Structure formats: structure tokens, C-alpha cells
Amino acid sequence: MTTTLPTTVVPRATEWLVSLAADLDGSLVLPGDPRWDAVRAAWQVAVDQQPAAVALVGSARDVVTVVRAARAAGLRVAAQSTGHNAGPLGDLSDTVLVRTGLLRDVTVDPVARTARVEAGAEWGDVTVAAGRHGLAALAGSSRDVGVAGYTLGGGLSWLARSHGLAANSVVALEVVTAGGRLIRVDATHDPDLFWALRGGGGSFGVVTALELRLFPIREVHAGILFFPVERAAEVLQAWREWLPGVPETVTSVGRILRFPPLPDLPPHLSGRSYVVVEAACQLDAEEADALLAPLRALGPSLDTFGPTPVTELGLLHMDPDGPVPAHGDGMLLDDLDEGAIAAFTGASAAAGPALLSLELRHLGGAVRRVDLAGGAVSAIDAGFALFAVGITPTPEASAAVRGAVRSVRSAMAPWSTGGCYLNFAEVARSGDELFGAATHDRLRAVKAAYDPADVIRSNHPVRPARGE
Ligand SMILES: Cc1cc2nc3c(=O)[nH]c(=O)nc-3n(C[C@H](O)[C@H](O)[C@H](O)COP(=O)(O)OP(=O)(O)OC[C@H]3O[C@@H](n4cnc5c(N)ncnc54)[C@H](O)[C@@H]3O)c2cc1C
User: Fold this and answer.
1) Are residues 373 and 245 in the same domain?
2) Atom of ligand 1 nearest to the CA of 206
3) What pLDDT is stored for residue 11 in this prediction?
4) Residue nearest to atom 28 of ligand 1 (CA)
5) Taking residues 387-393, what's their average pLDDT?
6) Same domain? 244 vs 373
7) In the 3-class helix/strand/coil scheme, how is the chain assigned residue by residue?
8) What is the mean pLDDT of residues 126-135?
9) What CATH number corresponds to the domain at position 400?
10) Is 423 in the pocket of ligand 1 (CB under 6 A)?
11) What value does the mean pLDDT take over residues 9-28?
12) Which of 115, 305, 325, 327 could serve as 46's disulfide partner, Cβ 3.0–4.6 Å?
């Protein structure tokens, strides 16, 4: 292990931590270390994380050491793989940030159709490894989203309407508890903890590995229909009317995109604005063509639909390739009527270039069916998940994006379910809003049983029940 003591006076708690971290396989980095800015940086680069220390853990054993040391030092612990959802974490000055990026092994068992995925793996690692065996995982839209945070928070994939949330595909989890014990939890071992971690987020322990179910899907028919942004209302109304006839094997997104002029973007995107329909169809070409016909009849300016290996679905949503300064937020909506689409397109027009993307993900199907063997969040009781996001390279841009996101949320309030999908919540939300009151109460009881002193913190914290 390597530890560089800062030249400034190290707080006593951190000294204690350093002494206990002497046998880490990875390293502990403290403020003042030349690596400090690199190791504390989140994928959301606008978030300025200033923890007490950063532990770059090199093994599950390291996580045990760090949790025990942090506890003994009176510090808290926050696990982070990529920092895609670092925004709501808040002040970290009393917290050791446990970064899992060195733990990226993925082992596929093609016979059992499972993958054991270390906690720092990104979705690209898993989809490629599973794809070699003709298998697919319930991966997020972006290759560099962390498997751990995404799955613990639910996990909406391009296969969601047929296969449900990624949290439901978890077979077992390896977890370091707040007490510093490494345990493997599944349906029969620590079932309450297993339940809480599947959808309840990262408040219950530091996950060191996930065992996930895989599915025999090699290829889908996927693509994007691009239309000029001026046709947003017409195209999204047509998409809304198309959705009731769509089978569960089709997951689609209706979206308004306003790309800034950037040299890294392809010419058809740089500085251009579109309304698009993206979809992944587990159908053969003929069936997909028949299904897409009413949307194609609208005359898209670009149509990219075609046979797509599942390993390439991580490109479909056109998410950024690497860290960006951005702010986004989401909400859950009931089934949409004509007025909802009008409000949505109106809010987009009012926001203008402040919002790079304003999207509606079609839910329903297996996403809406409660899985009785599932975890805290096994289904989302909503018709659509909305997400609005803009790029925030300057304070002025940040203010404009935050204002635009708020305006979208208030324009869509009449169709809100009152809930919010944890992974699309990039600002603090109440537990009742994220989980519903009954599930939140049960999560708080599990938290009290496994972490009564609230050592483990999450971006969307569940506080221990206090027996009130
Ligand atoms: C470009 C982009 C695309 C996205 N696409 C999708 C999508 O298609 N579908 C979807 O559902 N969501 C999507 N999201 C949202 C994404 O799922 C969340 O941001 C999620 O929290 C990211 O997980 P992470 O591990 O990368 O992030 P992190 O910020 O590293 O982690 C988020 C939280 O997860 C918990 N956590 C992480 N690792 C551990 C661990 N080892 N042990 C315990 N807790 C842990 C912690 O509470 C942490 O605060 C997207 C986000 C972005 C920015």
C-alpha cells in the first residue's frame, strides 16, 4: 500500500486511519497528496468532492480494513464506483470515500448464465464479457455507468420492459457491513439485507461484488429515428399513440436533444437539435419493420434502425463517452395524454439550449410488475420516467440548467406519480418519495439492524429507524 502524508497537519482521526491502513492492497490518499484531485474527482465533474480521505481499495479485504479503521476513527464511509450520481452526496469532510475502480473483474458462468462482477466494474466490462457467450445483462444505456450504483438503485436497461429492473437480476451480493464483516447475502443468507440492497441504494454496506443473472440475447433490432426539433409535438404525440400497441419486447425512449457545437461530436449532431425516438426491439427485422412503420411514415430525416449486437446497445442513447460537468434530475409520470406531450414539448422549447436532453423512457411491462422474490424496489409503478439534463461548464450555465430542470418538473407536475426513480434523482429526495412510505419504513428498520450508527452513507441515504 502507499500513503503520502500531507504536509498540512493531519486531523487526528485521519492519523488513526492512516496507521490502520498500513496493510492495504490498494492505497489511501489524503488531502495534499499530488494525486488528490484525480482520485477525488467524480464522473459528474461539476461535483467538488472533499472527503477526509480517499481509499483506492484493491481487494474486498481492503474494504474491511477501511471500514473498521474509519469506524474506529469516528469517520463515516461512502462507496463510489464512478461518481455518476455524486451530486446528492453532500459534505464529505467526515467521510472516507471508498473508490472501487480497481475492482473490475467480471467472471461469466455460461452454463449457470450468471456473472460475478466486482464492484468497480462498468457496464461496458460486463456486456462485452457476457456477449462472448451470447448472453446479455440488464445494462444501463451508457457503457461507463457503474454496475454497482446502477443495480443497487434499480437499473433501467434497454431490455427493461421484458426483463424488469436490473435489481431483480441480482442472485447474490458480497458486502462489507458497517461492522466490518465481509458476507455473501442472497435469498437465504441475510435475506433482509439482500432485500434492502436491491433497489434501496448504497446505505446498507459496501458491496464488493455482485452476482447477476444473464439472458440468452445476442442481437436486437435497434436504432433511432431523427426528426427536426420543430416537429417535436407531432412526433412525440405519434410515439405516445404508438406505445399501447407495442409488445413488452420493445423498450423505447422519446427525446428532445439540443447538441452544442462541439468538435468531438459527429457533424450530424454538433450544433443540431432533434426530436428522436430510440428503441431496442427483441424482434426480427420483419416484425420490427412492421411495428416501426407508423413512426417511419412520419418521414424521419435519419433512420438508424438495424440488427444490433446487444454489446453495442451502450451506444444507442448517445451518452457522453467520459466525465462531464452536468446537472440533471428526473421524475416519474403516469400514463401520458395529449396535454402531457404538449406540456413536455412546451417546457423543452422554453428551456432551449439549457437542456441538452429531455427524455421520456417508456416503462410498463415487466418494469411495472412487482416481483415477489424481488428487493425493496422490484417494480416502478409509473408509465414513464422523465429525465432532464444540461451541461454546466460555468456557474452561469449551471444556474440556467438548474432553472430549466425545475421548470420542466413543474410543467409536468400534473402528470407526476409523486415518486422519483432513485437513479434519475440527482438532487436530494425524501425516502418516502424514492421508495414509498411502507418500503422506506422497512428499509430504515434494516438500516437500524445492520448500521445503527449510520457509518455507511449513500447519495440517497436511508437513516436508521430509532424505534419511534
Ligand atoms: C450518462 C448517464 C447514463 C445513465 N443511464 C442510465 C440508465 O440507462 N438506466 C438507469 O437506470 N440509470 C442510468 N443512469 C443513472 C445511474 O444509474 C446512476 O447515476 C447510478 O447511481 C450510477 O451508478 P455508479 O455506480 O456509476 O455511480 P456512483 O456515483 O459511483 O454511485 C452512486 C451511489 O451508488 C452507491 N454505490 C456505488 N457503489 C457502491 C458499492 N460498491 N457499495 C455500496 N453502494 C455503492 C452509493 O450509494 C453511491 O453514492 C445514467 C446516468 C448517467 C450520468
Assistant:
1) yes
2) 42
3) 58
4) 83
5) 96
6) yes
7) CEEECCCCCCCHHHHHHHHHHHHCCCEEECCCCCCHHHHHCCCECCCCCCCCEEEECCCHHHHHHHHHHHHHCCCEEEEECCCCCCHHHCCCCCEEEEECCCCCCEEEECCCCEEEEECCCEHHHHHHHHHCCCCECCCCCCCCCEHHHHHHCCCCCCCHHHHCCHHHHEEEEEEECCCCCEEEECCCCCHHHHHHHHHHCCCCCEEEEEEEECECCCEEEEEEEEEEHHHHHHHHHHHHHHHHHCCCCEEEEEEEEECCCCCCCCCCCCCCEEEEEEEEECCCHHHHHHHHHHHHCCCCCEECCEEEEHHHHHHCCCCCCCCECEEEEEEEECCCCHHHHHHHHHHHHHHHHHCCEEEEEECCHHHCCCCCCCCCCCCCCCCEEEEEEEECCCHHHHHHHHHHHHHHHHHCHHHECCCCCHHHCCCCCCHHHHHCHHHHHHHHHHHHHHCCCCCEECCCCCCCCCCC
8) 98
9) 3.40.462.20
10) yes
11) 73
12) 325
Q: Please report, for the domain that includes residue 61, its CATH number.
A: 3.30.43.10
What is the per-residue pLDDT for 264?
A: 82
Q: Is 152 in the pocket of ligand 1 (CB under 6 A)?
A: yes
Choice from 39, 85, 315, 420 to test ligand 1 binding pocket (greatest atom count within 8 A of CB): 85
Query: Is pLDDT at 5 greater than 80 in this prediction?
Result: no
Q: Cβ(193) to ligand 1 under 6 A?
A: no
Residue of 99, 144, 152, 458 to mutate, ligand 1, most atoms within 8 A of C-beta: 152
38 domain-assigned = yes
pLDDT digit string, tens, across residues 270-304? 999 999 999 999 999 999 999 999 999 999 999 99
Inside any domain, residue 190: yes
